Structure formats: structure tokens, C-alpha cells
Amino acid sequence: MSKNIKIALIGNPNTGKTTIFNHLTGFRQKIANYPGVTVEKKSGLKKIDDITLEIIDLPGIYSLSSHSEDEKIAKNFILDEKPDVIINIVDASNLEKSLFLTTQLLELGRPVLLGLNMVDIAKKRDLKIDTKFLENILEIEVSTLIANKKKGIDTLIDKAISVSLSKKSFGAKVKFDSFLEKEIKNVEKLFIDKIDISSKRLFAIKLLQQDKHVLKKIDSPLVIKKVSQMKDVLEKRYKEDLEIVFANQRHDFIRSILTKTYQRKEKFKKNRSDKIDEILTHRIFGFPIFLLFMYLTFQFTFSLGAYPTAWIESIFKFITSSISNLWPQAILPLFRSLIIDGVVAGIGSVIVFMPNIVMLFFCISILEDSGYMARAAFILDRLMHKIGLHGKSFIPMLIGFGCSVPAIMATRFMESKKDRIITILAIPLVACSAKLTIFALLIPAFFPKAYQPLVLFSLYLVGLVLAIGVIKIFKITLFKGKPFSFVMELPSYKVPSIFTTLIHMWDKTKEYLKKAGTVILGFSIIFWALSTFPIKSKDISESYMGKIGKAMTPVFKPLGFDWKVNTALIGSFAAKEVFISQIGVIYAVKDAGDTKSLQNSLKKDYSALQAYSIMLFVLISTPCIATIAITRKETGSHKWAFFQLGYLTLLAYIVSLFAYQIGSIFI
User: What gap in Å lies between CA 43 and CA 470, rounded to an integer?
Assistant: First the structure.
């Protein structure tokens, strides 16, 4: 007889939940050493004999509170969906921090299994863990594992199945002081007959803490009023916020356990990560080192990416010449032009820059997997604090180097709604991978090889500086208020997994190719048609596309743009890569060729100053229509989505205008 078991994976950020989830389900969820990566619950299936496991990977959280969106997702799932087994993954090398969430899960009155991950790291730090004592004191099963080496995961799942089938209520409860325990029981009596819920103890504690999600389940104003009065009495007694009182007593309980569970063989000494941090997070040298790493990333992106780019160029040049030679111009000339000048020229001009994108993701993945990206947020905390935010706000911006859409979703771990909206509005100013394709076309065409990484670095730096400036302006005008305190775990440094890095590179390559075969292909055909018709006109500037571009010229001429650039900018609103596709379609009329010929044609028509002005506009303007859509979804308002589109377009115009007009004076 088949059976279905729902398993929830929950734990602090950077404890290995997603690694376990990927191993069990065969998925390739992103893994990184900072919060905000898993921002939604992910579900996958695993079949073991006649048992089907539904495994849910929840966002990494520190407690069952509701301070941020990812905490709400995890907490609401645990309270409302009632999984058959909760697997709490904890960091064996940092049990005091990890067990805080465990004590809350034990109050649910449901089967809980504790997964002690990273026991190898704990061993290296001379930490001895008495797992048997931990099982006895917590009254739950404990399983040790090393997730990144796939050790102990199968045993963990076997225990989870066993725990689920036993149908027992597991877990020891934290014994708070007599005053708290008395009020918890009093609160339970208030709603015991009014609501169907199994975890009455945790529910009562959350009511005393005035948790908004739990309060919504109570439809009696009298009960809510009574609990609020009880909370006020307790806070007067303790002279402290009740949530802090509960937290302090939980930590006391945890420390009492760890005195017998957790033993250090030798006196505390600095580990390797501590020694590296003395240099990389240095008060003076930390920021210059961060800038150096960013510069080396761009240097690597261009230098190593040049070789596969040349190979892809050769392939598309061969395809174009083969079609041209085998397909006589007299036979279906219009369809021949569509294939050569529309599809091949449009798609080819975008695909050729795929190596640069892959190399950028390779570098970012190495920095993430090593643990350095969390340090980058820590280093920039001082700067971000001066503009009214904290280092956490920089984490989504780092994700924005890849794509603005997941970066905006990653703001869910931020506690303050105001800070979250500000960060969402500023994220598009960070140059995403789609914008990189345009930079990779224009920079080699107009700037000497020795200066190309520096030019690219300057564009990313301009984006970051503008983002900081915009955040500061918004903070003192639209969103006044003090920032939340910044607390963030700095994970241990580790050697990046080449396998994981290559998997991420392949996934990004597939995403890029899929985009090229759908959105970019579609717009390439549309722009080919607009550039070809009316057929009676042999001059592309007299086509429908040419007329649209010319109509825009009075507005964009002060920026150094002509009708060809104007038309490409229209398409780039859908996706930035379409800019290259459109330019490829226009110049294919003359060259029908590879990227080198396209770059040579551009160099004849534009100056380096015009190219830089174009890149500034591309850098600052909204990345794509999907960014506007996700902004509306995450802010819950059309107002902020349209505001983001409007201010980015205006800012892009102003900056490009100043750059071109001032540059024209000196060049």
C-alpha cells in the first residue's frame, strides 16, 4: 500500500538545507552563503519503495517570527500546512545559535527530527558533541551528516520516515519561569474551545507576543483584548518587551543543554576563517580589496571570454555564408532575408556574447561559494548605514549582477518594508547580465584592449554610486526613518565546489539560450519586418522602423543617439539583449555578417563618447519589462512599479545627457 509523507526542511541560513534538498530531489536550487537566496518554499518528490516523499525546502530563518517575508513564508507553512515530519537542519559547529529555532519547533507538538550538519567542521574546531545526550534531553531523534559530501543524508531520510510512521508527539518543551508558564496556560484556556489547532502552546506564546499571523486566527475581540492586557502586565513585571523575555529564557535553556552536550577539547583559538577575515574585512583595507576583486572579475570576464566568443563568431559566420551560397537570392528573396538578416543576424549577435555572461557567473559563483559575498555585505555596512540602510541591502544588489528579478525577490528577508521598497527601487541600477551583452559589444569596438576591463569596471561603479545616491535621496524624502540593526552571520571560508559552479554555469547558459530562442527571436523577426517594409523602399532609414527612430531623434539627439540607436532602445525595454538583436538586424542589411563586421560598422557611425553615452543609458534604464512586473508583485502596488520605470528613464536621460554634452567639450 502506497503512502505519502510530507517533509519540511527548515533551519537557519547557511546550514545546508538546500544542499540536502537538491540531493534528494535532483533539483538544482541555488546555494549561497548568505540569506535571501531561498525566498520561496520549494517542493520536490522522492520515491522510496512504496512511499512517496514530498520534500519542501523552506527559506532559511532564525526563528518563527514575522519580521521579514521569508520568515512569514516558513512560519505560515509550519503552522498552517502541518507537515508530517519537520527536519530541522542545524550547524553542528554553532549549536547555540541554531537551537533557538529548534526550541520553537518542539512546541508544535509534531514529529521533529534534528539534522546535525557540518560535523566535520565541528571536529576541525575541536568540538565534541554528545548526540545521545542531546537526543535524551530534547526527546527527539538526532542524525549527523555532512551534506556537501552527501554523507548521512540517506540515514536522515530513513529516520524521518520512521518518525512519521510512529505517529507520536515528539519533543521536550522549554520550561519558562513560573509567571510565564502560568500566563501561557491562561491563554490556552481562552481559545481552547474556540479554535482547532494542535500546537496550542506555541500558539499561546505567539498570542502573548501579539504575532499578527496568529492574531488573525482569533475572531473574538474579547480574547484579543484579554491577551493584550496580559502582555502589558508581564512587560511591566519584566520591564522589557515580552518577545525579548521569551528569547532570553530560551537561550538560558539552550546554554544549560550545551554545557553537557558541547565540549571543546582545547582552549579557544582562532580558526582559518578568523585569520583570513583579519585581512579581507579590515577596517581600512577591506573596501579596496573588495574593489580589486570586482575589477579582477571584469578582467577575467573579458580576457577569458574572448576565446569562445571568437569560436561562436566563426560558427555564425559559417552559417550565414553557407545559407547565402546555397540559397540563390532570386528564390523567395523575402523569406531568405528573414532567415539571414532577421533570425541569424539577430540571434547570432546575441549568442556570441554568451561566453562573457558565463564567465561573469563563474566568478560570482566562486565568490559566493567561498563565503566572500557575505563579507562584502559586512564591509559595505558602514557605507550603507550612512545612507540610511544596512549591509543586508547590498546582498540583493550583489544578486542583481546576475538578474534583477531574483534580486528583487531576495529582498524578502529584509525586516523593514520601507527599506525593502527602497532597495527594490535601486536594484535595477546594478548592471545585470543582460546589460553586459551590450557592453561586451560596444566596449571592444570603441576602446583599446588594455582599457576594456577598466571601462566595464567604471560602468558597474557608476551604477553602484547612483544606487547609493538614489537610496540616500529616497531615505530622506519618501521613506524617512532609522534603519534596522544589522545582524548577519559570516560563514566559514571554504574551497568552492567546482561541480556546483559548473552546474550553475550550465543552468545560466540554458536560461540564456532559452531567452535567445523565444523573446529575442520573436523581437528579431518583428524588427526585421519593421526594418524591411515597405518593400518599395530600399533605404532602411525609410522603413517603418527608420521612421519611428527618426521621430524620436529630436528627443535623443542631445545624448548622441541617432535613429538606429533609438529603435534598438525601444526593443530593449522588453529585454536588454534585444538592443543587440535590433542593431544586428539593421547592420545585416549591409554586412550580413559576424560581430567583428558589426563592431566595425558601429565604429564608422559612432564615436567612443557616443558609445559610452549609450552604455550609460542602458546601464541606468530599467533592465526589462519583467523587472517592472516583479516590482509590482513584491511591493503590492502599481504605483511603485511605474515610479521605478519613470525615475530610471529620467535618470538615464539626465546622466547620458550630461556625459555626452560635457564630454563633447573636451573631446
Answer: 37
Closest CA to 406 of 13, 29, 114: 29
256 φ/ψ angles, rounded to the nearest 5 degrees: -65, -35
H/E run at residue 23: helix 17-25
Tell me the C-alpha distance between 522 and 500, whole Å: 33
Give CA–CA dist 410/399, Å, rounded.
8
How many alpha carbons lie under 13 Å from residue 116 in its C-beta half-sphere?
25
Segment 210-267, tens digit of pLDDT: 887 777 777 778 888 888 888 888 888 888 888 888 888 998 888 888 887 776 555 5
Residue among 530, 510, 518 nearest 342 (CA): 530
Q: Do residues 399 and 56 lie in contact, with contact meaning Cβ atoms separated by under 8 Å?
A: no
CATH class of 3-166: alpha beta
- Cell, residue 472: 540616500
Cβ neighbours of residue 513 under 8 Å, at least 6 residues apart? 351, 354
Question: Does residue 52 come out as left (phi exceeding 0), alpha (psi in the -120 to 50 range) or beta?
Answer: beta
| Comparison of pLDDT for 641 and 198, the residue scoring more | 641
Cell of 605: 557611425
Residues 6+ apart with CB under 8 A from 272: 492, 493
Residue 32 has a pLDDT of 43
The confidence score (pLDDT) of residue 113 equals 93
C-alpha cell at 31: 546555494
Identify the pLDDT of residue 31.
Answer: 43
In angstroms and rounded to an integer, the radius of gyration of the C-alpha atoms of the chain is 29
In angstroms, what CA-CA distances link 50 with 22, 47, 324, 343? 21, 7, 59, 50
The residue that leads in pLDDT, 199 or 287, is 287
Closest CA to 662 of 556, 552, 559, 553: 559
Cis, peptide link before residue 396, omega less than 30° from 0: no
Q: What is the SS3 string spanning 496-530? A: CCHHHHHHHHHHHHHHHHHHHHHHHHHHHHHHHHH
- Ordered strands of the 42-48 beta sheet: 42-48, 51-57, 3-11, 85-91, 112-117, 141-144
Number of Cα atoms under 13 Å in the Cβ half of residue 225: 3
- Judge contact between 31 and 372, C-beta under 8 A: no
- Residue reference for cell 536522515: 156
pLDDT at 350 over 80: no
pLDDT of residue 191: 67
For the entire predicted model, the pTM comes to 0.65
What is the chain's length? 667
* Three state DSSP letters for 554-621: HHHHHHCCCHHHHHHHHHHCCECHHHHHHHHHHHHCCCCCCHHHHHHHHHHHCCHHHHHHHHHHHHHC
Pairwise CA distance, residues 103 & 95, whole Å? 12
Q: pLDDT tens digits, residue range 524-573?
A: 788 778 777 886 666 777 788 888 888 999 999 999 999 999 988 887 88
The span from the CA of 524 to the CA of 509, in Å, is: 20
Among candidate residues 542, 610, 591, the one with its CA nearest the CA of residue 348: 591
Query: CA 609, CA 588: separation in Å to the nearest integer?
Result: 24
Whether pLDDT at 37 is above 80 = no
Helices (H) and strands (E) in the chain — how many of each?
Answer: 32, 8
Query: Would you say 114 and 90 are in contact if contact means Cβ atoms under 8 Å apart?
Result: yes
- pLDDT, tens digit, for every residue of 588-605? 544 444 677 888 889 999
Angle between helices 354-370 and 498-515 (to 10 degrees): 140
CA terminus-to-terminus distance, the chain: 80
Domain boundaries, the chain: 3-166, 178-238, 287-480+503-666
Residue 281, CA distances (Å) to 143, 237, 264, 373, 380 in order = 35, 42, 27, 11, 10
